[in-house]
Amino acid sequence: MELRFDRVAKTFGSLEVIKQFDNTIHSGEIVALVGPSGCGKSTLLHMVAGLQTPTSGSLSADAATIESPSPQRTLVFQEHALYPWLTLVDNVALALEFQNRPRAVAKSEARQWLSRVQLDGFEGYYPHQVSGGMRQRAALARAFIARPQVLLLDEPFGALDALTRMTLQSVLKELISEECPTVLLVTHDVDEALYLADRVLVFSQRPASVLKEVQLGHIPKTHDLSDFAAERREVLELLGIDAGSKAKNTNVEGVNL
Ligand SMILES: Nc1ncnc2c1ncn2[C@@H]1O[C@H](COP(=O)(O)OP(=O)(O)OP(=O)(O)O)[C@@H](O)[C@H]1O
């Protein structure tokens, strides 16, 4: 599904959040949005999800104006993604039950999806009984089971430790390559953006505008991003970070290095 932003602007009262955003996200493309905290990245995702409307300009999915939420466009948050009172299998099955699929079919498919994210044996566990990484695996299963054409990821692994995050990034990458949704990923983690995306949009401070588009191409990547050192440096410098430093750190804007 192709997403088209045509002079999209957004204000909340007197607060100008997005100045003017023009872009086309091609069907099956994976685009990461990075930028300073509060510049409006989540607002852009919420508009694609149909939870917010542009103040001016237009936003369409396959040429149809986005006016409300749709199961074709799924949003995955950083946390609180699962219902705590439902088991993992019921959480995942719910996405299909919302589409009026029979409960038994939904549960059977949910079990298969939990297996795809390596959660066999944990189907009957409640979210509080499993680790944060396992909860996000289940959240990915719940997002993918409905076979969305657009996947909107808002800091999906932001609450996880670095090692778990890298493992989950690999799980997500595999699911994306098998299911081929169009993906918009908001992240503070520049390496996550480089690893997952075909293209990175670097935003300015609010009101957000695109400082630069970095093309990475739809090519196989590993967590060894040494081939993308130039792109990494470019993104970091645009974010105002001294890219010469090798220190693993977090700057004042909350961008992970
Ligand atoms: N519903 C709303 N009503 C009023 N202001 C809002 C609303 N949603 C977002 N904002 C404001 O819009 C600005 C951009 O918020 P947004 O969450 O899109 O930024 P962000 O770039 O995703 O930030 P972060 O990286 O910290 O998550 C913020 O100043 C925020 O307070």
UniProtKB/TrEMBL annotation:
Transmembrane segments: none
The keyword Transport is assigned to this record: yes
InterPro entries cross-referenced by the UniProt entry: AAA+_ATPase, ABC_transporter-like_ATP-bd, ABC_transporter-like_CS, ABC_transporter_ATP-bind, P-loop_NTPase
Keywords carried by this UniProt record: ATP-binding, Nucleotide-binding, Transport
Listed Gene3D superfamilies: P-loop containing nucleotide triphosphate hydrolases
The keyword Nucleotide-binding is annotated on this UniProt entry: yes
Example of a GO MF term: ATP hydrolysis activity
CDD domains: ABC_NrtD_SsuB_transporters
UniProt xrefs under Pfam families: ABC_tran
Ranges of residues in domain ABC transporter: 3-230
Family from the record: Belongs to the ABC transporter superfamily.
Identification of the protein by name: NitT/TauT family transport system ATP-binding protein
Species the sequence originates in: Modicisalibacter muralis
